[in-house]
Amino acid sequence: MPKVGMVSLGCPKNLVDSEVMLGILERQGYELTPRAEDAEVIIVNTCSFIEPAKRESIDTILEMAELKKSGSARRLVVAGCLVERYRKEILKDIPEVDYVIGTNEIERVLDACAFENAGRQSAAPVEPYLYHEFTPRVLSTPAYSAYIKIAEGCDHPCSFCVIPQMRGKFRSRRFESVVREAESLAQQGAGEITLIGQDTTSYGEDLGLRDGLAALLRELGKIPELVWVRFLYCYPNRLTEALIAAVAETPKLAKYFDIPLQHASGNVLRLMRRGSSGAQFIKMLEKIRRAIPGVALRTSFIVGFPGETEDDFKALLDFAAAAEFDHLGVFLYSNEESSGSYALPNYVPARTASRRQRQLLALQKKISQRKLREKIGQRFPVLVEGRSEETDLLFTGRLESQAPEIDGRVLINEFAGAEPEAGEFRWATMVEASDYDLVARLEAETFAKRASKPRPPSPRIVQIQPAAPVGV
User: For residue range 221-238, what is the model confidence (pLDDT) as tens digits?
Assistant: First the structure.
């Protein structure tokens, strides 16, 4: 069978789609390679959430198209969100693309990769797609950590967002399906599970479940092999008392909330079709902190939204100063032509938006520095992730307060006992702090003993980091 290489762009939700496509191909006998130049079939799973992501996707497609001239590639498949928005344009303007599959056509990847298939897309109608516990996946994350997509699509009307157009209406996986997949991953060696979806806090509503996410998290907290369970992302008006209580009362749930608030000015939030205000957000954050001492809070904001005045931005700065998030990312507004905000007046110049981004990040940098310095001398569990890519003299790891890929890290420059192995959970004492990272001395004492052996390493996806918000 031909060798297949996958380039996965964008968020963890897209990464799971890539893993599913590779699982389907592997089950059929295709050989997988992490080297695009060795692949006979190349799949680019695209992102098109914002303008930088679209450019990155197009540039990657064109780069992979060159391998049809200079490498082993004989077939180029484009999948994902870019196809949902620009299918006709891709087929017309990039003749090197042999086949396109949208976000609901993942199971057609076999047709897409077949050399004998002369067509460039399927004409058959599609149904909303969501994988389940029996769907094959080739996990590309480290053996000790994995993502589980618990829902797909979104029903929220945010004016800046085009995700509902690409992913469809919100739909949840069955409760039992998620639990079984988590149990399977834990038995394969995953000590950390991260639940993902466009809006995990709406999980189960379409299935008639009340407080579905809270109930799911409590159930996953019973799996013996798991050490940390976290979820991304919280829609603020769906963050319930039951969810807070579940995190507070379940030891294995990471004391961590990622709540993309997008802004704090009531005027801008109204234009965004999100509602609420900075004052209401502060009350929500205070409620979480009272219930869960030491909880880590992350958010993301958009600056430069049409109609955002200097007073609106000052309100955002004041809010960020008062809220004191542990981690904060900042998007520059991207004016997507099919979004509800596209035709809004009072467009903010790019230079002004960039200046506001720098100001907000400078404020957050000071907050992060102070919060991390306060951890010096304290003892925390650390998930060891292996030797540093920068130097063999350091190991890296993460605290419970640091989610994979998006937050800071712990640099381990000294350890007691045996040399640490990736996937170990050990106690560590923080000895230094930088702007966003910590330096620690790893102790010999284990935080959590792992009964299961890690699964063997899988072929790695050629993954390119997403066009993400700036910040940590």
Answer: 999 999 999 999 999 999
DSSP string over 116-153:
T---SS--S--------TTS-----S-TTEEEEE-EE-
Q: Residue 463 has which token pair? A: 């993954």
Q: What is the pLDDT of residues 80-113, one digit of tens each?
A: 999 999 999 999 999 999 999 999 999 999 999 9
Q: How many domains does the chain have?
A: 3
134: exposed, middle or buried (C-beta count within 10 Å: 0-12, 13-18, 19+)?
Answer: exposed
* E strands present in 262-378: 296-303, 327-332
Return the exposure string of 162-181: e unless at least 16 CB atoms fall within 10 Å of the residue's CB, then b. bbbebbbebbbbebebbbeb
Do residues 200 and 84 share a domain?
no
Give kind and range of the element (H or E) at residue 5. Answer: strand 3-8
* Cβ count within 10 A of residue 137: 24
Distance CA 43, CA 186 (A): 29
Q: How far apart are CA 417 and CA 112, in angstroms?
A: 51
* Burial tier of 349 (Cβ tally within 10 Å: 0-12, 13-18, 19+): exposed
Q: How confident is the model at residue 70, as a pLDDT?
A: 87
pLDDT of residue 463: 47
| Structural domain includes residue 373 | no
Direct distance between the N- and C-terminal alpha carbons of the chain, in angstroms, rounded to an integer: 42
Q: Within this chain, do residues 164 and 227 fall inside the same structural domain, yes or no?
A: yes
Q: Provide the 3-class DSSP secondary structure of residue 380.
A: strand
- What is the value of pTM for the model shown? 0.95
CATH number at residue 419: 2.40.50.140
Of the candidates 180, 211, 213, the residue with the CA atom closest to the CA atom of residue 195: 213
Q: How many CB atoms lie within 10 A of CB 390?
A: 9
Q: What are 364-407's pLDDT values in tens digits? A: 999 999 999 999 999 999 999 999 988 888 999 999 999 999 99
Phi/psi for 401 (5° steps) reads -85, 5
Closest by Cα among 256, 255, 311 to 278: 311
Q: For the chain, give the number of residues.
A: 472
Other Cβ atoms closer than 10 A to 212 = 23
Is residue 207 assigned to a domain? yes
The DSSP 8-state label assigned to residue 238 in this structure reads G
